[in-house]
Design a protein that fits this description.
mainly beta, five-stranded mixed beta sheet, 25 strands
Length: about 350
């Protein structure tokens, strides 16, 4: 009898424990089909006041196609918005992070490290918008080595610099802050790295094998800034006062199955959504710092909607849209199937 009771208790605990685990979601192929060759490496996303998802199409895998901004309607139709300004030295643009400023215009990081090893070529674009129509693309800041994630708070723009090239035993990256009023295409801001007054935070990545630093970043509804430290698989939290001074920093979440932390977005419930490029996974971190692996699969070509080196994800309603940038890095090798994935939350 005692053994029977023990078995029942064990079974009850097992069932209760299992029911508390969130089952992995199965990603589906966005739009019901692969992307055409001219849209071969999607990356950063943001949601406009019109409800559209605005997407930076880097086209790093096939640079013969121009980089551009696309948008995705609420019924998942794709439209082209604008071709982005090629760099005079490399002949291409390489957009990553994208965000709407408080002025209604798009601000986009242009990571030229995809096109050249020469430091200081990366830029920030301003795409002037007239309603849903893009009017022009101009450079408003330059001198970055690897401009990456980008976000906004009030009349400010924040940019992750993935490589400050500071040397030493640790890899240094950081976060720049700009007032919108500074970002004038007639006189672009020129950043200079360590010591630049716009550089408000320097991050050290201790992983000596994956020396990729600051990546995605976003503010929550309370005004806390969260930054991905890719190589250390950490999400950092910092408080920034109204003058742009960092008043506190901490590690908000790390480990718990995360192998890397790439692009970041925060939804209306203050959940943090992260693409784990190296882990082929999508991560949700709750406001209480609980790490949840929402979807994960092995190395694939993504033909059926599987994650294929995801670099960014964003929640719109009950769907999470995933950009599979599909770069050759870590366990992934670029292939000829170009996709985005959708994860249904309900």
């Amino acid at each position: 009898m005692k053994n029977l009771v023990n078995l029942i208790v064990v079974a009850f605990l097992f069932i209760t424990f299992s029911s508390c685990q969130e089952q992995l979601k199965t990603p589906k192929l966005a739009f019901g089909k692969a992307l055409p060759e001219k849209y071969n490496s999607p990356d950063g996303m943001t949601i406009g006041s019109d409800g559209y998802i605005y997407l930076s199409m880097t086209n790093v895998n096939k640079p013969e196609f121009p980089a551009k901004v696309l948008r995705i309607s609420e019924d998942d139709q794709i439209e082209e918005v604008i071709d982005l300004l090629p760099h005079p030295k490399t002949g291409v643009a390489k957009p990553l992070g994208i965000v709407f400023g408080s002025d209604g215009n798009l601000y986009i990081s242009d990571n030229q490290s995809f096109a050249s090893e020469e430091p200081g070529l990366s830029r920030i674009f301003k795409v002037t918008m007239n309603g849903i129509k893009a009017v022009k693309c101009e450079v408003v800041a330059e001198g970055f080595n690897m401009s990456n994630g980008i976000t906004t708070r009030g009349n400010e723009i924040y940019v992750a610099e993935t490589n400050l090239n500071a040397g030493g035993d640790v890899h240094k990256s950081g976060v720049y802050r700009f007032e919108l009023s500074e970002l004038n295409p007639e006189n672009p801001v020129k950043v200079t790295g360590i010591g630049d007054p716009h550089l408000i935070w320097v991050i050290e990545t201790k992983n000596k094998e994956i020396t990729v630093g600051a990546n995605g970043l976003a503010f929550n509804s309370k005004g806390d800034l969260f930054v991905c430290n890719f190589g250390d698989a950490e999400v950092l939290k910092m408080l920034v006062d109204e003058n742009g001074k960092v008043t506190s920093t901490e590690v908000f979440a790390s480990g718990n199955g995360m192998i890397s932390v790439d692009g970041m977005q925060i939804d209306t419930e203050d959940n943090i959504w992260i693409a784990d490029f190296l882990g082929n996974a999508i991560i949700k971190i709750t406001p209480k710092a609980k790490v949840v692996i929402v979807a994960k699969n092995g190395t694939t070509e993504g033909a059926n909607g599987e994650l294929d080196a995801p670099s960014e994800c964003i929640r719109r309603g009950d769907k999470v849209y995933v950009s599979n940038i599909d770069l050759t890095f870590g366990p992934n090798t670029t292939d000829d199937i170009h996709t985005m994935s959708i994860i249904e939350l309900k």
